[in-house]
Amino acid sequence: MSVALVTGANKGLGFETARQLLALGHTVYIGARDAERGQQAAATLGARFVQLDVTDDASVREALAVVATAEGRLDILVNNAGVLGLDAADGPAALRVFDTNVVGIYRVTEAALPLLRKSENATVVTVSSSMGSFWAVTNPQRPEFGIPAALYAASKAAATMLTVQYAKAEPGIRFNAVEPGFTATDMTAAMPGGRPAADSARVIVHWATLDADGPTGTFHDESGPLSW
């Protein structure tokens, strides 16, 4: 079965994504910054754990080295780790948002590429957001139009662009960005109305388990393609 790595997987959407991939029979590595929480999550699910802080180059390299030694390849990468950054009030705080939501994706993907290239059916899913869609945030008929989240929206637009650029540069690997849906997690606790993580994780898992002839370089939610 496929070998999968999910970042930010000790709770919320990442945890549920890992759970659903495990239920399909995949070998799943939970990547988490906090070792104790990550180990607990892995033990709860029956997954494997790697300490992985997407903002730390050494941590990322060491995590992928663990996967390389144990598995020799990586078939599925889910770039899930992210922050909202609504409370960022200065330049360093803003940089931390981009370091997690954008540069973190770059760090992990670059470190994972040698293992993904060894897979016969490699796919990378980046958990993006419709808040990163220029079409959605400029459309008065869309809820994103009225949500003031400048840093988050800008970082998710960049995350989607990274997806497209990787898809062009690595034609042997599928790269797709997804909007999983507004989800009730710790990150969105101040915003009521989110749906269960299990519902949103199904969107991610669908794109993580595409056949080898599946699309690449796309941006989707559960209803279909999202405009850029």
Structure explained in plain terms:
This protein has seven helices and eight strands. The model has no long low-confidence stretch (mean pLDDT 94). The chain is globular. Helix 1 (12-23) packs across helix 7 and helix 4 packs parallel to helix 6. The longest helix is centred in the middle third of the chain and has 26 residues, at 91-116. The protein has one domain: Rossmann fold (3-Layer(aba) Sandwich). Helix content is 44%, strand content 15%. The protein has an eight-stranded mixed β-sheet with strand order 3-2-1-4-5-6-7-8, with helices on both faces. By secondary structure, it is of the alpha/beta class. The protein starts with a strand and ends with a strand.
Search tags:
228 residues, alpha/beta, Rossmann fold, 8-stranded mixed beta sheet, 7 helices, 8 strands
